[in-house]
Specification:
The complex is a heterodimer. The longest helix of chain A is centred in the N-terminal third of the chain and has 32 residues. Chain A is 77% helix and 0% strand. Chain A is mostly helical. Chain B is mostly helical. Chain B is 60% helix and 3% strand. Chain B has a two-stranded antiparallel sheet with strand order 1-2. Chain B is elongated. The relative contact order of chain B is 0.07. The chains are: A mainly alpha, B mainly alpha.
């Protein structure tokens, strides 16, 4: 086998490998262009469960807002955990308004709490835990 | 590849110039170095000549002569493929520019709808959702003046959201939370909130329009309420926060916030 033949085989190999590489790069580029948040993933249901179980309300609110900001309504059905986050936020606001004597705004937050509580489903236990913690404040 | 050798080839090789391009040929040339066609005259039709130019081995008078054309073509194909890969990587690296450009077009197209939504959040005092909507649509990176009047408030709502979370973290700590870290976060974000007030953005058009002034005042009042309710600050404390240094705020919060894990 002379060097000419070896060079030919090598070039054939290079062309095939490069062609496959190009196909992969084109797919990657197309995906990147279609969605700038391709590397991001919404917080999952298990993350919300972990935060709610640990009574980590700051984390719960952060994840809720991050999901809404980056993905809008997540594909996975997290509506009950989103309702829990809305309830927690409204309850925190309501207490602050009541302390300040702002009954009008406190009433508005109460309405949000009622709507959110109705959408909690099986997560009402987490709501009760939060209520106890909030009352102790 | 089969070696090719004919009498006609020998005759053609004796010619001094290529019959197709007129390029100079040496006596033992089989393939014209100028045009790549056969210099032997074996094949009379262009198609046949193309055939011979793709032979990799041509034997003449017992010598093996290699045509370089197939290698050159393969090298060109390889170069084109590599160039295409480079272009794709470049485009991918600039995808945020493409994405931002798309969002900017949308922001311009839907200006009426977006501004109505933003105004609605402000009038409802829903600063959290204002911040979410602003970031979702990436309105701050849009190279347009359309949303300038919202920009100062958007900065405030962003800091407000961070501060809100800091206060919640300090008020409802888990066993893993670090109290000092939460307090430092409140102090540094409070400093940012006061520093980047509306006046800081006075170069923006309509920075102090009534809706912005009202939103800034409401957010400040909400934060003060939160600090009073959940961090134990007094009226006197919250009224003097603006003039305090970050370290002074940290000392104050350490005094006021009960240590639940002590």
């Amino acid at each position: 086998m002379n060097i000419h033949k070896i060079l030919n085989i090598f070039l054939n190999f290079c062309i095939i490998v490069t062609a496959f590489l190009l196909i992969a790069v084109i797919c990657f580029t197309a995906e990147n262009l279609s969605d700038s948040s391709v590397y991001a993933h919404p917080y999952s249901r298990s993350s919300f469960t972990y935060a709610a179980g640990n009574q980590d309300y700051e984390q719960l609110l952060s994840m809720y807002r991050d999901n809404l900001t980056t993905f809008g309504q997540s594909s996975e059905d997290l509506s009950d955990y989103y309702a829990l986050a809305q309830y927690v936020e409204a309850a925190i606001n309501r207490k602050a308004y009541l302390e300040a004597g702002d009954t009008e705004r406190a009433e508005r937050e109460q309405n949000i709490m009622n709507t959110a509580a109705a959408a909690l489903g099986e997560l009402s236990g987490y709501k009760d835990n939060f209520d106890k913690k909030l009352t102790a404040k | 590849m089969e070696p090719i050798q004919t009498e006609q080839q020998t005759q053609a090789a004796q010619a001094k110039t290529c019959r197709y391009c007129g390029g100079p040929l040496s006596d033992d040339t089989v393939v014209c170095p100028m045009c790549g066609l056969s210099a032997t005259g074996e094949f009379q039709t262009p198609a046949a000549n193309r055939k011979i130019t793709y032979q990799t081995h041509i034997q003449r008078n017992g010598k093996i002569i290699h045509s370089r054309k197939p290698i050159v073509i393969k090298l060109v194909i390889l170069a084109v493929l590599l160039l295409a890969i480079f272009v794709c990587f470049f485009v991918a690296s600039q995808s945020h520019v493409v994405s931002n450009s798309r969002l900017e077009r949308e922001a311009k197209t839907h200006y009426a709808e977006y501004s109505q939504q933003l105004d609605s959040y402000l009038s409802e005092e829903d600063y959290m959702n204002f911040n979410i909507f602003w970031q979702q649509k990436k309105l701050s990176i849009c190279d347009t003046n359309l949303y300038d009047k919202y920009y100062p408030v958007s900065r405030l709502t962003s800091t407000y959201a961070y501060l809100y979370n800091d206060i919640v973290s300090a008020a409802f700590p888990t066993e893993y939370d670090n109290r000092e870290t939460a307090i430092q976060s409140i102090a540094s974000d409070l400093e940012l909130f006061y520093e980047y007030d509306l006046e800081h953005f006075s170069h923006y058009e309509a920075y102090n329009r009534p809706a912005n002034v009202q939103a800034a005042a409401r957010m400040e009042a909400n934060l003060h309420n939160m600090l009073r309710t959940y961090c134990g600050l007094t009226d006197e404390d919250v009224n003097s926060l603006k003039d305090m240094s970050q370290n002074r705020i940290i000392i104050l919060l350490e005094e006021r916030i009960p240590n639940e894990h002590s």
